[in-house]
């Protein structure tokens, strides 16, 4: 009898286990089948320099029923009538209120955003909302989540002193509350993950770390291949070092020019530094170049449309990112996609994409002599430029718009069915 009871009990367990397996398998299949039925909203208060979102959004649209990116500040030259921008909706006008005259995203203060975003969310009826940062839009999306019945994923680009506001108890409390009520959080970098889990106290299982701000070579090369090449070829000495970014204090260009001045003292003259960008410090830094007698090595290109930047990446030899503070640093990944060695500031979130001595070097911009030494290494050893560039391309190959879109879709499916 005891044996019979055991066999009967065992059979019941097997039947229960079998049913559980069928239910789990069915749920997984349901998840897979419903991914393409999802409506996904991305709330990005500003994409002023974010034309790179187009390819990711296109891929996400291919994976889901519909995806819409809402912003209050699109990039320069944005055309709302263009077919490629049909999934991007501009809501109001994002205004940064700060005492800093430069009014950058790192200048403190707060952003004034249109409260009309809620109307558009209820009109769209998304299943999942990805909200960038701890903005008013994120707060509103969380407050109205029970009524809209959507899930919310908080996207935290990365960590830096003037963005974290660790000294502000009020901001930290509000951010902690928003993170608590979010269904999941994503971030590009280890620094972003550390801020969320160790400072705000978010449970590790709620945070997913993976680069979701990624480059697309085709978007950067929407012009004839000859563009830019003639300019570079007629005014350069090799190797060509490239800087792309705002000409402002935070970006550290003045530290890079200090390194060039050090090279000049050491009689290193066979190179060119191309500076692509605009900003309030341009005239001051041009004067610095004349004072240090390096004006012949530094070429000021000016502002270049995003679709034309690829020509400069392609024709340069080495990319330098001397920033004093950046939560991520998309431009670094773009240079990697073009197969360039990277000289990167330790204060960039994307510095973790640089493997020391393999695809470049990480330096402290506050000590320009270390940057000068890294530049000398590549000037003296041209073969490193080729090998390091190949390694950059290899490292970035897994971080594509397709991979980023799949990451968004997988997270959306996870928060719906967890």
**Helix residue percentage:** 40-55%
Rg, rounded, reads 25 Å
> What is the domain tally?
2
Task: Kindly report how far apart the N and C termini lie.
Answer: 43 Å
**Assembly context of the chains:** single chain
Average pLDDT reading: 89
Per DSSP E runs of 2 or more residues, the count of β-strands stands at: 15
Q: Can you tell me the CATH architecture of the largest domain?
A: 3-Layer(aba) Sandwich
Q: Mind describing the biggest β-sheet?
A: 7 strands, parallel
Task: Describe the protein in words.
The structure is a single chain. With 418 residues, this protein is of the alpha/beta class. It folds into two domains: 31-214 and 400-417, Glycogen Phosphorylase B (Rossmann fold); 219-396, Rossmann fold. The chain is 44% helix and 16% strand. The chain has helices at residues 2-34, 53-63, 117-124, 136-143, 145-148, 161-164, 169-181, 190-199, 217-220, 229-234, 253-265, 282-291, 309-315, 330-337, 368-380, 382-396, 401-417, and strands spanning 39-43, 66-71, 88-90, 95-97, 110-112, 128-132, 151-156, 184-187, 207-209, 240-244, 272-276, 298-302, 318-321, 342-345, 360-363. The strands form three sheets. The protein has a seven-stranded parallel beta sheet, with helices on both faces. Helix 2 links the parallel strand 1 and strand 2 (66-71). Helix 11 crosses helix 15 (368-380). The longest helix is centred in the N-terminal third of the chain and has 33 residues, at 2-34.
